[in-house]
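For reproducibility, we list the full input for the alpha-L-arabinofuranose complex.
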Amino acid sequence: KKAKMVVDKEYRISEIDKRIYGSFIEHLGRAVYGGIYEPGHPTADEQGFRQDVLELVRELNVPIVRYPGGNMVSAYNWEDGVGPREQRPRRLELAWRVIETNEIGTNEFADWAKKANSEVMMAVNLGTRGIDAARNFIEYCNHPSGSYYSDLRISHGYKEPHKFKVWCLGNEMDGPWQIGHKTPDEYGRLAVETAKAMRQVDPSIELVVCGSSHSNMPLFPQWEATVLEHTYDHVDYISLHQYFGNREHDSANYLAKSLEMDRFIRTVIATADFVKAKKRSKKTINLSFDEWNVWYHSNEADRKIEPWQIAPPQLEDHYNFEDALLVGTLLITFLKHADRVKIACLAQLVNVIAPIMTEKNGKAWRQTIYYPFMHASQYGRGIALHTLSSSPRYDTKDFTDVPYLESTAVYNEEQDEVTIFAVNRHLEESLELECDMRSFEGYQVVEHIVLHHEDLKARNSAAEEAVKSTTNGDAAVDDGIVRATLLPKSWNVIRLS
Ligand code: AHR
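The corresponding predicted structure, in tokenized form, follows.
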């Protein structure tokens, strides 16, 4: 089968915001305790942070990490996680029905993020709490000194303010499972008043208001419209969350699910712009896709977990090769919307629906999905280009006209490099790609990275990395035309310079 692309350096979508390669650490399962933090582990540093995990996080080049939740934030008292450790309370954590020891809190996580070369995307609790706790918390984190909460932070050993820039106004407040679930009007009113108070403390922050928990929520997209009508002038981003799975064991259909994400993004853009028009506003609200990933493998195991344990193995999806392919198509989808999606967080980062797994007292290892994320994060920086493509198509249970070729290109002017990202969704046949790149005169192929496995269900483990990328693709340029074989079911990164 044949597919074509045209990539021209002048056809630009937008500068890519590097924060689309963000991720997420929630106080959930073994993400924090036994994940990033395991005092006594052979690689633990003086604060108990595992350096083997930090190395893998740094390799992913994650510019921002959302924290501390997630559902957990909706009943979280930030005060529990600061100050002398021996005085911190053990709490019933209601979202995931575990015991939270509060050994790690805001200050320790800020330290960890620095070590990971990341910023923190902080969240306030708008489930059980509201304006008062939020304004105190931001004063504690961001105010330099000379006030009750900023001086409290200093007394806890943190002289410099953390200067957290991006803040989430609660989490998934449209979800009936959320502690403190609200109607769109209840949430919209609380969010706008909280936003105003937080900005009084620190006008330099950016705020993310909660959109729908996924695109099949009953109120979507009316939720977005109502919430933005309340908050439009006082927030910067609206959030989107979506998880995918192959419960039906239909891989052709599964690999087309990035089209669902594409439709979700388009609908949220349309809704935000509708409110913009209604308000005669000059301001544009951008998108923060701050939870996305594959999540379904662990559902059954999670139902068997006894409540009120400390850091049980919750949401430990063990990813296979087809999950990595889907993740590749989702990353390409963000790049195609680089003009409006400015933040995205792979949910999550360690152990909990994560690219990085850890063994207690043992190894940290890479899941299959680690690879496409790492490649996009490393090479998908610069300008997202509008590409033209033509590809044979197929129909599935939920989608029609699905192109076998999912692709895009990124131009990094500074490094004088252009990268094509491409997935061949065909399960049996190669695609012979012909890509017109004549505007990139003189560019040669640096490498053609391929992630491919014969078995869609192949998985990695601590013992063996069965699924890992190679650089044995055959891409070559001739007279400005790149020709490459895209193997059946493969993720491809073709770098030219
Ligand atoms: O990432 C796991 C959970 O998924 C988060 O806590 C919640 O926000 C979402 O439902």
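The mean pLDDT is 98. Residues 258-278 form the longest helix (21 residues). Both points were considered when choosing residues for closer inspection.
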